[in-house]
Amino acid sequence: MIIPAHHGGDAPARMPSPPAIAIHQVSHFFGSNQVLNHVNLSVPEGTILALLGPSGCGKSTLLKMLAGLLHPASGQISFDGEIVASGKLSLPPEKRNLGMAFQDYALWPHMTVRQNVAFPLQMRGIRGAVQHEKVMAALERVGLADFVSRRPSELSGGQQQRVALARAIVAEPRILLFDEPLSNLDRDLRESLCEEMATLLRQLHTTAVYVTHDQHEARTLAHRIARMDKGAIASIDPTDPSVVSPFVA
Ligand code: ADP
Ligand code: MG
């Protein structure tokens, strides 16, 4: 029997897909203060990484690099294998297909809930009935479908953060970034909203980086916890499955 020469017997090795987020040797300075020191970190698609660490260790700075709000002094950031920041190349935030929610909610005070949530769709040119459907679906997910006509000042802190969450997810971005979104809320509300967010993020299967200094939040929400200290990643561990996380297989 003649075996064709190219039939080596083994099937060609399938290339593993690149991580949703890859941070390679990223450093940054504010003046002479080095706030990020050769950070390496990757986040597989569909997983949630909690970035945990003391105040001032560089968590928000690193998140801003992912968002495109700051540019690294050196190093490289890729999303799905596509470089978004390296050397002089910097993809602007609106081209990175992200959703973000921060500690201070950052809702536009003059807009209604519906207009706030619709904004990322408006930016992407999604209007009319499709926009309306997506806005209502996002608001239903966070339990605020009845509040479309209110303005942020007419909502509680927890409700405002839910609106910010709806706005982050409405356009189904490839990556979600959170910077201590629950830290302005009182303890009870923080715990219940944390559970709700854990359920929501599990349903969405979106890749997410969740900055917090709260260990309990990190364990409830994340698949993995990266601990940061003085501008560097000190350790990366899976969350303890015996604690809370419904995520860990
Ligand atoms: P974290 O989010 O972990 O609390 P940050 O990333 O906000 O920490 O800050 C890291 C360090 O960088 C801190 O020492 C902070 O004071 C400093 N820093 C942050 N933003 C700026 C800025 N715009 N200008 C100068 N220093 C800054
Ligand atoms: Mg911070």
UniProtKB/TrEMBL annotation:
<dbReference type="InterPro" id="IPR050093">
    <property type="entry name" value="ABC_SmlMolc_Importer"/>
</dbReference>
<keyword id="KW-0472">Membrane</keyword>
<dbReference type="InterPro" id="IPR003439">
    <property type="entry name" value="ABC_transporter-like_ATP-bd"/>
</dbReference>
<dbReference type="InterPro" id="IPR015853">
    <property type="entry name" value="ABC_transpr_FbpC"/>
</dbReference>
<keyword id="KW-0408">Iron</keyword>
<dbReference type="GO" id="GO:0015697">
    <property type="term" value="P:quaternary ammonium group transport"/>
</dbReference>
<protein>
    <submittedName>
        <fullName>ABC transporter ATP-binding protein</fullName>
    </submittedName>
</protein>
<dbReference type="InterPro" id="IPR003593">
    <property type="entry name" value="AAA+_ATPase"/>
</dbReference>
<dbReference type="GO" id="GO:0016020">
    <property type="term" value="C:membrane"/>
</dbReference>
<dbReference type="InterPro" id="IPR017871">
    <property type="entry name" value="ABC_transporter-like_CS"/>
</dbReference>
<keyword id="KW-1003">Cell membrane</keyword>
<dbReference type="GO" id="GO:0015408">
    <property type="term" value="F:ABC-type ferric iron transporter activity"/>
</dbReference>
<keyword id="KW-0813">Transport</keyword>
<keyword id="KW-0406">Ion transport</keyword>
<dbReference type="GO" id="GO:0016887">
    <property type="term" value="F:ATP hydrolysis activity"/>
</dbReference>
<keyword id="KW-0067">ATP-binding</keyword>
<keyword id="KW-0410">Iron transport</keyword>
<dbReference type="GO" id="GO:0005524">
    <property type="term" value="F:ATP binding"/>
</dbReference>
<keyword id="KW-0547">Nucleotide-binding</keyword>
<dbReference type="Pfam" id="PF00005">
    <property type="entry name" value="ABC_tran"/>
</dbReference>
<dbReference type="InterPro" id="IPR027417">
    <property type="entry name" value="P-loop_NTPase"/>
</dbReference>
<feature type="domain" description="ABC transporter">
    <location>
        <begin position="21"/>
        <end position="248"/>
    </location>
</feature>
